[in-house]
Specification:
Dihydrodipicolinate Reductase, domain 2, about 25% strand, two-stranded antiparallel ribbon, 6-stranded mixed beta sheet, about 200 residues, globular
Length: about 200
């Protein structure tokens, strides 16, 4: 949800993610200790959450990926008793602070290469913003666009950062299996996959 806002130069981000048990490859039947429980630690996930976005926003050179220097990201990752869907509570400050209406407009109008190419599994709208104060909700909104869309809501000013908001994605569809399928579709559309025959 920050990629559409990079033009405003985010400088600091704090995020807490509330991650479903399927992210650990588990079900409640296999992991009964997760019922009625929250575990405030997911090994390696916080480091990954702080570093991977900087790789994505970096540059590819002949010698490899040069990671972006900003924003500085601080993450906490928590396992919660939900089957599927990761929620993120995000706080962000910008070098060039946009109006809230600009942020919502950037989200609503954002499209990536999969949308531009009309790939079969690309969500029609990549980010859907909810105006309701109690949305997005994991159970209600994780399956938007067959689980390939991302939802956002509760954008509002913050007392320490510029803004705070909530986001949800389906971790096994948008984040894993579906993401892999969409990547394959993109490679095929670009002509980068060849038949073995």
């Amino acid at each position: 949800m920050l990629t559409p806002l990079l033009k405003y130069r985010p400088t600091k981000v704090a995020v807490t993610t509330y991650q479903a048990i399927s992210g650990a490859g588990k079900t409640f039947a296999e992991w009964p200790e997760m019922i009625d429980n929250v575990i405030p630690y997911i090994g390696g996930e916080e480091e990954k959450s702080e570093m991977e976005p900087l790789k994505i926003w970096g540059k590819l050179t002949d010698s490899g990926i040069v990671t972006a220097k900003e924003p500085i990201i601080s993450a906490q990752c928590i396992r919660v008793p939900v089957t599927d869907g990761h929620m993120a509570a995000v706080f962000v400050s910008f070098e060039e602070k946009p109006a809230a209406e600009q942020i919502i407009s950037e989200w609503k109008n954002f499209e990536g290469e999969p949308q531009r190419l009309g790939l079969p599994n690309a969500p029609e709208q990549f980010i859907t913003y909810f105006d309701e104060p109690d949305r997005p909700q994991t159970k209600l909104d994780r399956d938007i666009y067959r689980g390939m869309g991302i939802t956002a809501g509760r954008l509002r000013p913050d007392t320490i950062f510029d803004y705070k908001f909530i986001g949800i994605s389906h971790n096994t569809l948008r984040g894993a299996a579906g993401g892999a399928v969409e990547t394959a579709e993109l490679l095929a559309a670009k002509g980068w996959l060849r038949s073995k025959s």
